[in-house]
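Run folding on both entries below.
>entry_1
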Amino acid sequence: MTPALKEYRVRDVKRNPKNPGGGKRYDELELLHLHKSLKQRQWMPIIVKEPEMYVLDGNRRLAAAQLGGIDTLSGIPVMHELTPAEINRLIAQLDIRHQPFSEIARGKLWLAIREENGWTNVQLAEDLGVSASLLTKVFGNVENPEEIQQMVEDGGLSLRDGYYLSRIEDVTERLRLAHEIAAGKVKAESVAGLVRKQKTPDNNATPPVRVSRITCPLPSGVTVTISGHELSLDDAIKAAGELLKEMKKARQENLDGKTFSAVCARKAKTERGVP
């Protein structure tokens, strides 16, 4: 749950010199546009470290407010220094409450949180308090080409439209359909039908080759081996992705390679019900 909001006098808070964006100079024209926007609506609270009264997130908004005419900013007080990952999680909760972000910006933020914590979609959904199906739609939009993302941003396509399009394998066809949907020439339901048809197995298709081991020597001199029962290349890709997430999480916890290997072995035994 996000902390309660409070009002801060602009003259009482300062930009954070420790923050990568806290001490830099901002584009004047950009600040003028933001200043005008803030006077109309303060759409996102700043995050303030107390008692020092410096801004952990929202330095650009503070700089814009300092141009004059804005006396107070809504903010959230925190009593300890937050890591970038903690700030992202707090910003995500604020966005869920106030809905200031676009669909694509929200998706990129949620994706960053998932990667920072090495979570699955289900774990991320539990942390954010949203449905896993919503995450699937949001992340599908982030996978689309920028042209389609922009159409979602501009309202020409819905989040649902963008998700269906992201399931079309051929990117050229995806772009064509996006313009057809935006122009009202094709219904989103038709695209959903194409997706379902695409997923229908072709009985005449050649079955994937399955092996017990896939060994990949890399130019760096490292050899990666994935073994299992009747592995296809897709199985190996999925396994490698899961392993990468676990390794990133282990690195954040400062585990060494030997400890990480032991943790993985123990976790695998537990999930298989092996004593």
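>entry_2
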Amino acid sequence: MKFYKNLSIFKKILLIFTINFLLFLGFVLFYLLPQYPKTMMIEKKQALQYSVEMIDNMLKEFERRVSTGEFTLEEAQKRAKKQISALRYQNETNYFYVINQTPTMILHPIKTKLNGQNLSDFKDPNGKHLFNEMAEVCRKDGQGFVSYQWAKPGEEIPVDKISFVRLFRPWGWIVGTGVWVELEGERKAELDQIYLITGIILLIISIMIFSIGIIFSKSISNQINKLVNITKAIHKGDFSSVSKYF
């Protein structure tokens, strides 16, 4: 490349330093940093699974008590719905709901007007039949994640949400709980702090790398120039001027 050939040795070495640093910077900005939100979402999904497993274990206990004759099925389901309805987590904004495979809403502690309704035609703002998809996921795999849009408690505008649902086969219940995709509160503050610290570290590294690069490039450039001058002097037979380079 003509541009590169015309550069001085010092500038060539400095250019190599710069290119390598930009590659490192690109790796941090476009690969490493985006992993933080992804990691947080993975943690959210794991928390959803653990939460639904807790309800699943509770239902198993009620089913055991039905099998021993302690409760009738109707009484056990009534007690289970009461307990599920009262459960909240993550600043009291997250809750559990129950549908069946029809799908019909068995229990929604926030939007109680949905209770008992057939949800086959229910769609989110994007036209997704979210409850049909939940029922289908559970029919196929017994459990799974479903993404859709839903308004937060006390708000009207639906936003991105993801739910984990699991089928409790003895009763035909599908238990679900979800979280909104956007980061909130402490998690958002944590992510902002990570970005700030990373930015400061990158700035310090940038200054260090360019300072070292300039010093290193200058040193190598001087040594190479010295060798070139010695070679030229020897080629001309001017051995007397060679000694000044040592």
